[in-house]
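Dear support,

I submitted the protein below through the web form. The confirmation email said the job was done, but the results page showed an empty box. After a refresh the structure appeared. I'm attaching both so you can tell me whether what I see now is the final result or a partial one.
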Amino acid sequence: MNKPLQGVRVVEMGSVVLAPYAAQILAELGADVIKVEPPKGDITRNQGFSRNPGMAALYLACNRGKRSIVVDAKRPEGLRALRELLGTADVFLHNLRASTADRLGVGYGAVSAGNPGLVYCATYGYGAAGPHRDRPAYDDIIQAASGAAGLQQTISGNPGYMPTIVADKTTALFVVIGIQGALMRRAATGRGERVEVAMFETMVHYLSVEHLAGLCFDPPLGPPGYRRMVSAFRRPHRTSDGFIAVMPHNERDWRVFFEACGEPELMNDPRFLDTASRARHINLLYERLSELMLTETTAHWARFLDEHGIPNSVINDLSMLREDAHLREVGFWQEIEHPSEGRLVAPAFPVHYQDEAAPRAALLPAPRMGEHTRALLAEVGYGEADIDALVAQGAVVAESRVAEQALSPAAT
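What the results page shows now:
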């Protein structure tokens, strides 16, 4: 079965996580994704563990299934080559500031003039129409600006960041949604589309689902914040020998739990009789739950909770997930042989389609820098001599030159 985006060509001019991760998802959906990098490459190429320079773990995790071309868009010949490539694209995705894109000659007006059917997607820190449009933005900054860091303060007394690149990755998912919507409309109208997805607005939208709370009404009926989410007692519970996650969710769960623990009378307390009253007094429920968890081992509680159908889980360390029985059974972990990096492990795409082959084929590994420069330029009409001239001028970088640089003393 063809994947949903089979035949769609995406040119990604992205760096760090947001745009590269979104483009990798598009590749998972079947798109032909071409990653355009400047001569210095994507910054993540040298962040984290690596076997070779320019092929670090974070880069490998966000750039599977792509082809790499290195172009110096600041040079006229490089910009001309990039525009030739964009002329063949269905989608152009970048995370440049609007002013930078215009200065480089890849702003919406310039690019769409040469390809009117193009879906042009720009993703920024802050929406281009607002006063913060030119402010620099990274995940930590957006977590602070959007209220995510402040939510931690309601629990611990100090603001804090979620220990994951949540703003980048959440925005990347909205980028994929926006691009797919634009492609659907183009299929109906034949016209291209300009799409903008901003990190700040996306994260406020994301957090508002549960945390707008009393501010959902005008005038407000109460403060923001979903009580259960910001309870200091919403945490893995300590057992006599470790920790366990427990979540009685509805009346049945709570009643069965306390009856099985020998405290059925607790659920007759007026504070816990229905969903609304339990929500108002959730800290008291969680506090009693914590006290009970301390009385037995983690293994005891896991068996007990499973027997009574109450949601629970042991606390997995990330390193334990490579051996998780469920993930192994569903074929989640994929082994990929990279021509220069050896054997790599990657998570399988978690979206399944009815008619897809099983086991699912892994995407090609993330490309080396400039690995496909020559092939891609040939695809848009450049001859071998023309490509050699571009390489000699420094307008593009092909892999052979990158390899020489990687082996030089300056690079190591």
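Response: this is the final, complete result; the empty box was a page-load delay. Residues 237-314 form a domain with the formyl-coa transferase, domain 3 fold (CATH 3.30.1540.10).
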